[in-house]
Specification:
Blueprint lengths: L11 E8 L5 E7 L12 E2 L6 E2 L2 H22 L10 H26 L4 H19 L14
Antiparallel strand pairs: 1-2, 3-4
Helix pairs in contact: 1-2, 1-3
GO molecular function: copper ion transmembrane transporter activity
Main location: membrane
Keywords: Copper, Copper transport, Ion transport, Membrane, Transmembrane, Transmembrane helix, Transport
């Protein structure tokens, strides 16, 4: 396609746009940068384009969201949603639904960590750790946990 640059080191992309009312061509320029190693700082892009932006408050909010997502994954992983006496079909459907929700949330946490922001990585691991401590430790007697299953 004319006007597009495909070089691996070139992050500027120009894409021809339709003509405007004056008959002139409008072009849109994007500056794309993706980190390929861990970095520190509030100027990150996590899960959605432009989020959290450059605001410190929004960055902190994004860290809280990632922490809560990973905590929620652990809660779902260690909760028992099926009641005794439930029909086999309804139990299977509920178990499938909860597995689907847990998988989706786990992928969201993974994608957030793929921003390569050090703070996001730390809060994701912390959320899983706190969730494991709170929810898994209630499964059995302390010190007698069964082997961890993946």
């Amino acid at each position: 396609m004319d006007g597009m640059h495909h070089g691996m080191g070139d992050h500027n992309m120009s894409m021809p746009m339709p003509s405007n009312n004056n008959g002139t061509t409008v072009q849109m320029h994007h500056k794309m940068m993706m980190h390929m190693s861990f970095y520190w700082g509030k100027n990150a892009e996590i899960l959605f384009s432009g989020w959290p932006g450059t605001s410190t408050g929004m960055y902190v909010l994004s860290l809280i969201v990632v922490f809560l997502l990973s905590l929620l994954v652990e809660w779902i992983s260690h909760s028992k949603f099926i009641k005794k006496g439930s029909s086999h079909v309804s139990a299977g459907l509920l178990e499938t639904l909860m597995h689907t929700i847990r998988s989706g949330l786990s992928y969201l946490v993974m994608l957030a960590v793929m921003s390569f922001n050090g703070g996001v990585f730390i809060v994701a691991v912390a959320g899983h750790s706190v969730g494991f401590l709170v929810f898994r430790s209630r499964d059995e007697k302390p010190g007698h946990l069964p082997p961890i299953t993946c």
